[in-house]
Specification:
It is a single chain. The protein contains two helices and no strands. Helix 1 packs across helix 2. The two termini are 13 Å apart. It has one domain. It is mainly α.
């Protein structure tokens, strides 16, 4: 699956609800004031953060998810699962 930062439609909703910005928004606590009208600015901020993360990972794709394992393992318990 490709990484997607996100984009907003004309009603300030995420076009793709599976984008990174939506995940960031969902991880944030709700605003203290339920009448907070800063939703548009926050969502643009989340898209900017997501875009920066995705661009960084793209520019560093050869080492972003590299897993280093020792050449020999003398005592290993548990299961190593690569997804």
């Amino acid at each position: 699956m490709a990484l997607e930062a996100g984009a907003l439609d004309g009603a300030d909703n995420f076009i793709n609800p599976d984008c990174m910005a939506k995940y960031i928004e969902d991880a944030m606590p709700p605003p203290a004031d339920p009448k907070d009208t800063g939703k548009h600015g926050r969502r643009l901020f989340f898209i900017a953060i997501s875009t920066g993360i995705i661009n960084y990972l793209k520019d560093h794709d050869d080492d972003s998810f590299r897993v280093h394992l020792p050449s020999t393992v003398s005592s290993l318990t548990g299961t190593l699962e690569i997804l």
